[in-house]
Structures are given as structure tokens and as C-alpha cells.
Amino acid sequence: MTRRHSNPVPGTLRLPAPAKLNRLLHITGRRDDGYHELQTLFQLLDLSDAVSLTPRSDGRLVLESALAGVAADDNLALRAARLLQRRAPAGCGASIKVDKRLPLGGGLGGGSSNAATVLVGLNALWQLGLSLDELATLGLGLGADVPVFVRGRSAWAEGVGDRLTPVRLETSWFVVIHPGVSVSTAGVFGDPQLTRHTPPINMARALQGGASTWRNDCEAVVRDRHPPVASALDYLARYAPAGLTGTGACVFAAFPHAPDARRIAQAAGEYGTAWVAKGCNHSPLHDALGG
Predict the structure, then answer these.
(1) Is 145 an annotated catalytic residue?
(2) Which of 119, 179, 198, 248 has the least CB density, counted as fewest CB within 10 Å?
């Protein structure tokens, strides 16, 4: 179910920053600038961080929550606020607090989602009136995953993940496991064993194939480099087709019924931290703002 986020302080927006899964991830080539061409299916979840935004009239942007190992200037939530502030009247400021639930570097898009929630939330709070297209363009400068969270729809994506077509996916219940390891995205994409030339397919063919045919081209490399990820995938595969999201470290499997998902998550303790989340096609962020 979608979690409700109350607004405890007058003028404060407390908004969800939802997670995503890459239901499939194909690497179809490498561009001259070094980035990889991708095809992926983004599935939004009701599992989320919470972002609190309190307006200030002194023009200051204050980050009230630090992330271990992440300098304030590298925090995507603060960077998003600074980027949007350039479009705001003088004096527009905010205090920003992120209550983290999503693991850093887990492949769930937490940092990108935090940035998108700040862009969408401050646009509303400061009454800037920017469109989702404008906000998504701003967000792309922060990271390729930011636009899908700004637009707030599960989507088929191409390019570096930025060319988006909304889709409706089955809103299954997901068991998501974080095996407790850190996966280097650069390390995965730099591995000589990575599959980089999967033949492109069109969206209709991908959707017609369904979850039983979907795969992540990064999985073989991540399995080899990180045995705990392989163990978590093998555990979930006993019950349903299991997949890696992004470059990991999180893995997932879909189930039609919540009780089954909860039972499998509760028994997953030796494989890492497990959550049960509901898939959704419309972002909880936009639901919270009535959009």
C-alpha cells in the first residue's frame, strides 16, 4: 500500500521519494563519450525515502540531514535545490531534510529520486509553475535516472535512460533484498566481461515477452564480482524469476499476493535486508501533491 506522508510543520512539505526497479536492462552499445546506450523498463515502487521541505525567506538552502561518506556539495538533493533556485525569485530558500530508507548505491535510484522530489516539491512550494518537461530537463543534468522520477510514471527508457515512454506494468508485490555489499557502477561498466552489444528491441516486443523473459545484462558480472548478490538472487529464484536492479546491489522478485511476498521476505534474513513493496505505475510523489 502507498505510505502517507504527513506535513507536521505548517508550510513544510513532507514528500515521498520513491524507489525504482529496472525490470530489464539491456546494454546495446557504447557512445563516443564513453556512456553506454541502454534499454530498460523502470518500475516505480511505494518503498521510499521521505523529503521534508520548509520554505525560507532569506534565500538560504540548508541541508539538515547528512549522508555518511557524501559531502554536502555532492548531495543530489542539495544540488537539485541549487539548480532550481536559479529559476526562482530572490529570497526563495528552503531547509531540506532527507529521511533515508533506501540504501545508498543499491540500484533503487534513491539519490536520483531525492533530487526529483526536491525539484518537484520546491517548484510547488516556491510557486514557480515550471512544467514537468522543464523540471525533467533540469534533472537530467543531475543524473540519467532523475527524469523518470520527475515525470512520475513507470516507463520504457532508451538512450542513457533518459528517453522515456510511459507504460503500465503489472503492479505486483515485490520482495527486494539488499545483500549488504557495495557495488561500483563504474567497476561493472568497466568490466571487460560485460555484455555491451545486446541487439535492440522495440518496446512492444519487450512488453509482450513479459517478466519471464526479462534480464539485466549487468547480472553476470555482478554475480561474479559479489557472491552475496549471487546468493540473494539464488534464494529468490527458488520462488519466482529473480532480477538485479541497475548495477545492484539490490535484487528483487515479483509475487501476485502480499502474504507470499511477506513470507519470503521474512525468511530472507541470512541474505540481507529485505523489504516488501508494491509496484505502482503512478508515482507516490505526484499522488502526494495531487498531480
Answers:
(1) yes
(2) 198
